[in-house]
Request: fold
Amino acid sequence: MHLSDFTILTGFFLVLFGTPFLSKKESIRAKVLSFPRSRLLAFILMITGTCWFIFGHVMHLGEADFGEFKTIIVLISVCILILSFFLTKDFLAVRALSILILLYSREVLDAAFLQEPSARLVLVSIIYILISVALYLGAYPYRMRDFLTFVYSEKNRPKYVGFYFILCGLSVGFSVLSY
Reply:
C-alpha cells in the first residue's frame, strides 16, 4: 500500500475508535467498558495478530534474517498464542490490540520511509503516538480499564473523547490532500 492509502486508513481507524464514545446507548457504553476483559475480542485479536506476524513477516524472512528458523519461529508464535489464553488471560484483548497497533505501525512507517517530510509529517506523528500508547498498554494493560472508567465517570467526557478521536481521524484523513 502507498502512503496515501495508509493515511486514509489511519484516519478511518481513528474515526472508528472515537465513534462509540459519542453514543448515548447504555449497551454500547457497557461493551466499551467490557473491552479490556473481553474473551471473544481477545481471541479474535490475538489470532489476527499471530497470523499477521506469521504470514506477513516470518514467511518472508531471508537467510540473513533467521530464515532457516522459520519453522521454529512459527511454533514459538503458536505456543505463545495458545499459552497466552492460559497464563495471561487478564486484559488479553488490550495486549492483542497493542500487538496489532505495533504491526500496523511497522507497515505505515515502511510506507513512509524516504517520502517527502511534508507529506508524512502528520501521519508519522500520529503513528509514533500510537506506538507509545501501544507499548505502554502492552506493559500495563489494566490502564485501559482505568482510562475507560475515567472517561465514563463524567457525563460529557465520553463525548469529548469521541470528538477528539474523530477530529484526529478527519485531520489525518484530510492531510492526504496535501500530498
User: Anything to note?
Assistant: The radius of gyration is 18 Å. The mean pLDDT is 90. Residues 117-139 form the longest helix (23 residues).
